[in-house]
Hints:
Layout: H1 3-10, H2 25-37, E1 43-44, H3 56-67, H4 80-94, E2 103-106, H5 108-120, E3 126-131, H6 136-142, E4 147-152, H7 153-159, H8 161-168, E5 173-179, H9 191-203, E6 207-211, E7 236-241, E8 254-257, H10 262-273, H11 279-288, H12 293-317, E9 329-330, H13 341-352, E10 354-355, E11 357-358, E12 370-373, H14 378-389
Parallel strand pairs: 1-10, 3-4, 3-5, 5-6, 6-7
Antiparallel strand pairs: 2-8, 7-8, 9-12, 11-12
This protein binds pyridoxal-5'-phosphate.
Pyridoxal-5'-phosphate binds at residues 48, 108-110, 134, 179, 183, 211, 213, 241, 243, 249, 254.
Amino acid sequence: MGATSARAGTFRIAKRLDEVGFSDIVVIRNKVMELRAAGQTVHAFHGGEPFFETPEVIKQALFTAAEENKTRYAPSSGIAPLRTALVEKLRERNRMPVTADQVIVTVGGAHALYCAFQAVLDPGSDCLLFSPYWTPIADMIRGTQARPVFVPTAAARRSGITATLEQLTTPETRAIYYNTPQNPSGVVFTRAEAEEVADFAKRHDLVVISDEAYEDLVYDGEHVSIASLPGMAERTISTYTFSKSYAMTGWRIGYAVAQEPFMTAMRKLVLYSTNGVATMVQWAALDALQLTAELRQKRLAEYRERRDVLVNGLNEIGFQCELPAGAFYAFPSVVKLSGDSRKAAALLLDKLHVATIPGAVFGSQGEGHVRFSYSTSMAAIQQGLDALRRLT
Length: 392
Ligand SMILES: Cc1ncc(COP(=O)(O)O)c(C=O)c1O
């Protein structure tokens, strides 16, 4: 072997990362920052964060934990009081009768999902995922050297979920990623649809990786945790986050629920990836769980108001948009600008300084759309709509 090829062999990354990409969302964020740095006003609809600040009690709980020297290593799976409180929450709100040893605290929902895919998928496995999907998911699947197999959500809901899943399932299919409410479409699967997916998983002996990041943001219909359905708890890894419900995106805390043998795998993965979540953050999360249902309802009403204003405005302007039943995104068609969503989003940003995310970023089933987040102030939504009106 010559010196050049020896070097090429050394200076390369592990093969399992070859197929793993970076999100295009970062590119848009950078462009927005550039425009702002140049003194321009940007109508920012590209984000994915709650519009309100972390509640004061949660911040105070973090300060108190620090003052009380709760600053040392915690059990890598999470402090006992938090796991006990999560058991209560899961029983009451998700109808999942779990025990504390079936709950593990993670560095946000993203870490819970990363560990879940690593725990279940082998190189060469297939993993079904409804598409359009939250961008990192396909890369998390590829990072295990498994293959993401895209299930077109809208078509499946129209022509039958079971039949669509049936067509896409292979002898290699090992798992289904199931996200409700969905990012980016705002789709909330109905109970009947959850039952269909559950029955399919049982019939084909598949594991379900359930992403419930937006569980508290359902405007129409109900949130059904798929693990609460009969015979599903043992074959589901359910993932949650404090990010969206409590405006704690930067705190990096979430959790997962699983039974054996998956929980042992999750424990190993959490231990060797992060060795757990910052101890003070866990104590603060415990206080987040004490916030009242009234407060959640109040927030939900504020989101609903924003959704209605944005979606009505988009439809009036001629961007056809279904009313999303959950999460905080609208996903209108932009084909009147361009069938290429990257071009449409670039046009909106360059000409009107309206920042959105091209639908193609969420899989080919997202093409022809852009994602708007309505998790912003009502004034910002109105100003953004005014800017869009200049197009017509
Ligand atoms: C569908 C979905 N799942 C999970 C997450 C994970 O969020 P985090 O890692 O902040 O908890 C997000 C964040 O945007 C999301 O949109």
